[in-house]
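Re: the 445-residue chain
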Amino acid sequence: MALIDTDGGFRVSRRIYHDPEIHRRELDSIFKTSWFFVGHVSEIPEPGDYVTRPLGVDPVIVNRGRDGTVGVMLNSCSHRGVKLCRPERGNTKAHRCSYHGWAYGLDGKCLAVTYEKEVYGPDLDKSRFNLRSARVEVLHGLIFATWDFKGPSLSEALGHMTYYFDALFGKFDNGFEVMGSPVRTRIRANWKAETENLSGDGYHTMITHETALRFGLFPSPEDVAPYGDLIGPKFPGRTVQCGNGHTIRIQHLPIETHPPGFLGYPEELWGEIERNLKPGQVDIMARTSVTHGSVFPNLSFLENFKTATDGPGSMCRYTRLTLKVPVDEGLTEIWWWHLVPADASETWKERSQRAYLRTNGPGGMFELDDNENFLGMAEANSGPVGLDQSYHYVAGTHHPDAHGLEWPGHVQDADRSEHTLRGFLTEWRRRMELTAVAEPAASIR
């Protein structure tokens, strides 16, 4: 029986989260050829600005060249492989190795070799030692890179997710900017656990985040009733498989507003949203309570609407990006970015940051709740009996598909479902070619 079995259900062997050999295969099958998020253009606004980031699991330098273009190159000297750039961010005219002093330009070209003629003679071809550069594309300020120059473009790889990305990150005239620097921490759990959760798991919210609910960090129907016509006691939501492992969950507030209202954003920016988006995208973004999903394999996004940021009844939005970088099969480094509309007032940006910090990042209430679950999954499945069990991803399979919408992708008319998790794992299986790897019958139960 395969490690992922879809015959009569959707069962997943727990080994895919804990097996070192499977992790090693992931590095080649997934983390060597995918498109990865590496930063935001607002982090490197001036020529010579750089940040150091992971591209998949390889360290890279992300910098802005003298001509204003964004470049991404392996953060490893071509001579002896020493980490070339050690600071997390800065501005420079060139990158110089601390070991033998070799220097590289912002475009990755090898500029200088110490004692070149004495050590290497008169005929050294320095172009042979240029840094390994990645293929780069920028979408709404988000910088993506891949080592694969022959594979699909970013747009082709995103497929239907492009429509939702445009709605989320292309709705303001001057886009988003990063608030502060990204925060990172490590958790003893597999990288796929949090990615699946953020891919669209609305099933866990009422249980895992019960304390946040009691504190009023989620708006109730009564909180939002003054802003529109109340249409029911529940928050309607849908989940979408966008293809290629990309997913999104969109939950709306239980109100109708005329004209469309984008509660939580400054009202002076509402006109930009309507002007920049298609009618179907306006319908998606109007009245949203929470929107979250994942870009395969390890980038997740979340736009949230929260109350109680500056006192009872106050409302504000925040947008976050999360990157899950595997250190090994049982250890993940997590990066968080907080994004705000570039044209919002400084006062609004600070309110958004307070709402974000209260709930997200290493000290955020939601993150602490979720991490307890991910740690528990790792701790309970370290033995041979636990690894012989399977997870069952069948929640929501009885729900109907949504019809009559302009939403691209496979849309399910259900807020609490594992529809998106199945989409993520289906692509994982395809990339890993696990269907061709037969396992003993006892490997999944």
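The chain is about 25% helix and 30% strand.
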